[in-house]
């Protein structure tokens, strides 16, 4: 009896097909690896790790060695300044020493902040942090202190130690006074104090000789503070939405003044001395109660004179409950856009001037 043979079919593939299949899989794997490497390189993990490695290394060094290292880094940055144009904006921003904190979830500053004295900028916005710590005096390299909308009630006197400070923004807080020690920040160029409602300026602030931009709008000033009239290099003064009724006769002390915002006040007359401000380019004023203004200002082709009138029409119901800060921001944004639209015009728009006609019978 013969045994039956079992037939087995063995598939035979073309080796080129197998090679193509394998190479395709290898190619896809390399692409995935490349994308993962790019993702990691672009993430913040590498930057955070680099910063912490730098801090750990600094803690192991002596104070003299740390100072020498910092000097070397600063010197290297100066020497490589010509190479900065080869980097994109992100790389440039990453080279700055900036601390940022946003949101009302923050009740206090991180404890490690007091050791980061190399920082050059603080940006703390819309938090529930109610005070600036006294240890800020150790941040002698600080250039920008940006702390709006935090409910701050005071500025520590230690701020006078920040001799390199260039910009200070304390808009929309609850400050009642500005410490006299701020006058020791001799390099301050920009100061913004919008909407603190009740501010008192010490005369020592007259020492801010390099100040160019001052915004004290939406407070309760009955007049321009005397110390402000001593800021001889001031170019832009925004004292709108206060309680001014008259301007000081010695306003021409502000010899460098170029832009003056006086709208939403009740100024009745503009003194003749304002014609001595030879650099004045723009004057924005509410004209509801204005009865006297020098003709030299009105007729001057070099001055953009904008006379505004308050709108007596009440706002729609849906806008009545609008947040005050949001409303103020919208008004400022509108004024900025409006003024920028006038920059290239030779004369002011006719609709900014009210015309009244009377008829004698």
Briefly summarize what is shown.
The protein contains seven helices and ten strands.
What keyword list fits this structure?
ten-stranded parallel sheet, alpha/beta, 10 strands, 11% strand, disordered C terminus, 361 residues
Our estimate of the beta-strand percent is 5-15%
List segments where confidence is low: pLDDT < 50 over at least 5 consecutive residues: 72-87, 313-321, 347-361
SS-based structural class?
Answer: alpha/beta
Q: How far do the termini sit from each other? A: 145 Å
Radius of gyration: 31 Å
Number of strands: 10
Number of helical segments?
A: 7
Rounded mean pLDDT score:
78
Based on CA inertia axes, which overall geometry fits?
elongated
Strand order of the largest sheet: 1-2-3-4-5-6-7-8-9-10
Report the helical percentage: 25-40%
Order of helices and strands: HHHHEEEEEEEEEHEHH
Largest sheet: 10 strands, parallel
Could you characterize what this model shows?
With 361 residues, the protein is α/β, with parallel strands linked by helices. It contains 7 helices and 10 strands. 27% of the residues lie in helices and 11% in strands. It has a 10-stranded parallel beta sheet with strand order 1-2-3-4-5-6-7-8-9-10, with no helix packed on it.
Summarize the helices and strands and which ones pair or pack.
Elements: H1 15-42, H2 44-60, H3 63-79, H4 89-94, E1 98-102, E2 121-125, E3 144-146, E4 167-169, E5 190-192, E6 213-215, E7 236-238, E8 259-261, E9 282-286, H5 295-299, E10 304-308, H6 317-320, H7 324-342
Parallel strand pairs: 1-2, 2-3, 3-4, 4-5, 5-6, 6-7, 7-8, 8-9, 9-10
């Amino acid at each position: 009896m013969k045994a039956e043979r079992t037939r087995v079919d063995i598939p035979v593939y073309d080796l080129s097909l197998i090679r193509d299949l394998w190479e395709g899989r290898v190619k896809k794997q390399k692409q995935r690896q490349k994308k993962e490497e790019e993702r990691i390189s672009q993430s913040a993990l590498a930057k955070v790790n680099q910063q912490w490695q730098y801090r750990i290394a600094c803690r192991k060094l002596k104070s003299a060695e740390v100072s020498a290292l910092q000097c070397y880094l600063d010197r290297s940055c100066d020497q490589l300044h010509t190479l900065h144009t080869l980097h994109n904006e992100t790389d440039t921003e990453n080279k700055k020493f900036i601390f940022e904190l946003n949101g009302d979830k923050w009740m206090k500053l991180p404890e490690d902040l007091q050791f980061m004295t190399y920082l050059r900028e603080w940006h703390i916005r819309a938090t529930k942090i109610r005070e600036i710590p006294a240890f800020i005096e150790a941040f002698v390299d600080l250039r920008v202190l940006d702390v709006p909308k935090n409910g701050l009630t005071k500025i520590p006197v230690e701020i006078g130690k920040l001799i390199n400070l260039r910009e200070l923004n304390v808009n929309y807080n609850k400050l009642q006074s500005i410490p006299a020690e701020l006058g020791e920040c001799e390099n301050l160029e920009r100061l913004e104090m919008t909407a603190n409602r009740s501010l008192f300026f010490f005369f020592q602030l007259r020492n801010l000789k390099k100040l160019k931009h001052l915004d004290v709008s939406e407070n309760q000033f009955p007049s321009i503070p005397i110390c402000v009239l001593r800021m001889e290099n001031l170019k832009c003064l925004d004292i709108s939405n206060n309680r001014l009724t008259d301007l000081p006769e010695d306003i021409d002390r502000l010899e460098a003044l170029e832009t003056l915002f006086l709208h939403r006040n009740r100024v009745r007359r503009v003194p003749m001395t304002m014609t001595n401000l030879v650099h004045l380019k723009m004057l924005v004023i509410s004209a509801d109660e204005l009865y006297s203004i020098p003709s030299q200002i009105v007729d001057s082709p070099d001055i953009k004179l904008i006379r505004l009138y308050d709108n007596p029409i009440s706002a729609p119901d849906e806008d009545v409950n609008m947040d005050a800060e949001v409303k103020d921001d919208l008004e400022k944004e509108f004024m900025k856009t409006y003024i920028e639209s006038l920059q290239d015009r030779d004369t002011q728009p006719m609709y900014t001037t009210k015309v009244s006609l009377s008829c004698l019978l």
